[in-house]
Amino acid sequence: MSTDYQRAREALGARLRELRLSRPGGRLTGRQLAQVLGWPGSKVSKLELGKQNATPEDLRAWADATGRPDAYSELAARLAGFESHIRSWRRALANGFTPVHESLTTEVDRTKDLWVWEESVVAGMVQTADYARHVITRYSQLLAAGRDIDDAVRARMKRQEWLYRPGSRLHVLMWEAALHSLICPPSVLAAQLDRLTGLIGMDTVDLGIVPFTASMKIVPANGFWILDKRLVVAEDWHAEIWLDDEENVALYTKIWRTLRESAVYGADAQNIIARARRAISP
Length: 282
Description:
The protein has about 280 residues and is α/β, with parallel strands linked by helices. About 50% of the residues lie in helices and about 15% in strands.
């Protein structure tokens, strides 16, 4: 993915490679370093190329094995800098919406299980093209972003091909408010609700609705995605936040499960969607 997050991982990898090659006792090959550390040979390569996230323990071991234990604090600071990666919307959208959509699609493509929570808008993975166009347009107006709205809509629709890939599973929760929010014309929302009804019973989608009347154990706040329990992507008004450290992934997983306790599925979810649909077209 071509994001600040990935570039930070690659920069850390380049620094690790530099330490290996400039070892005071003589440079080590990747294979030699892996043998010293008792790691699989591929791990050294993946860390240096930014294809695998290092742990603090990995960095400590690397610094010691390359004869530079004093470099650990620098490496740990680099790691902390991208474990909680915040990408400003204004900076991310400088080149339009399409690159932002494509970077997330890259992560979705290598994901098997996707957990989503949305509190006020229909989840992007199940949006119709018309509904998506209105949502993206609203953000464009707010953030004075690029005008590549049609390209962004196509990118979002292409991402949904994932839903039809064998082995994929979307676990999506939405607060009932998302079914009533007129971010678009009533006719567009009606078609979107019809799409949701058609998803119930689909073998790759678990669609849960949290009713207005449900007893809540946690405030139904900002939307977020959990990808294979390795990465969380959360949205706020000012930024998109990417988190891949175990503690935060575990926290968001707990939040999702807590919200799920208030959700209904199957026929009960269908009834709530139908009620929202009738409110639009009695």
